[in-house]
Amino acid sequence: MNAVSEQKKTISSKFEVTLLEDAVIEIYIKSGIVAETEDLEELKKISSEIAGNKPYVILVTSGELSSFSKEARELSASKTFITNAKAKAIIVDSIAKKIIGNFYLKVNKPYLHTKLFSEREKALQWLRTFL
Questions:
Q1: For 58, what's the count of Cα atoms within 13 Å in the CB-facing half-sphere?
Q2: Which residues are within 8 A (CB) of 125 and not within 5 positions of it... i.e. 6 or more apart?
Q3: pLDDT tens for residues 20-40?
Q4: pLDDT at site 2
Q5: Between the CA of residue 49 and those of 9, 56, 59, 84, 94, what are the distances in Å?
Q6: Which residues pair with 14 in a beta bridge?
Q7: Cα 92 to Cα 22: distance, rounded to the nearest angstrom
Q8: Which of 110, 128, 115 is nearest to 57 (CA)?
Q9: So what's the pLDDT on residue 54?
Q10: Rounded distance between C-alpha atoms, residue 86 and residue 110, angstroms
Q11: Could you give the CA distance from residue 102 to residue 79 in angstroms, rounded to a whole number?
């Protein structure tokens, strides 16, 4: 894994996007925000740039009380939205996040390989299988 000093990172008002290692992007959603479709478009652009416009996988982590609008959930699950991303692991560290994550998987049925994890290392191991 790259040293922290070598990591590429972009911080916006709602997100932090970090290249953890080659082709592995972490998206941290800041506490208390509601992500909208335009935020996802910005996230996709930043993630592609950080990954060098090559295929990548996504580790999603979040602060407390962060969420996505209905339209943003639908967009993130759609086939048309996916370009270079290969898989997405969502870290759920509370019962509330687990409920919301399961709702997303069942209702929005993401096109991209998506799985919930309570352990970061297991999520990363699963993501690496797509590279």
A1: 28
A2: none
A3: 999 999 999 999 999 999 999
A4: 35
A5: 11, 11, 16, 11, 31
A6: none
A7: 24
A8: 128
A9: 95
A10: 12
A11: 19
What's the confidence (pLDDT) of residue 57? 98
Question: pLDDT tens for residues 95-111?
Answer: 999 999 999 999 999 99
Token representation of residue 50: 């950080």
Give the pTM. Answer: 0.92
Instruction: Let me know how long the chain is.
Output: 131
User: What residues does each domain of the chain span?
Assistant: 4-128
| CATH architecture of the region 4-128 | 2-Layer Sandwich (3.30)
Residue found under tokens 């939205």: 81
* Dist CA 99 CA 43 (whole Å): 24
The answer to whether the CB of 23 falls within 8 A of the CB of 131 is yes
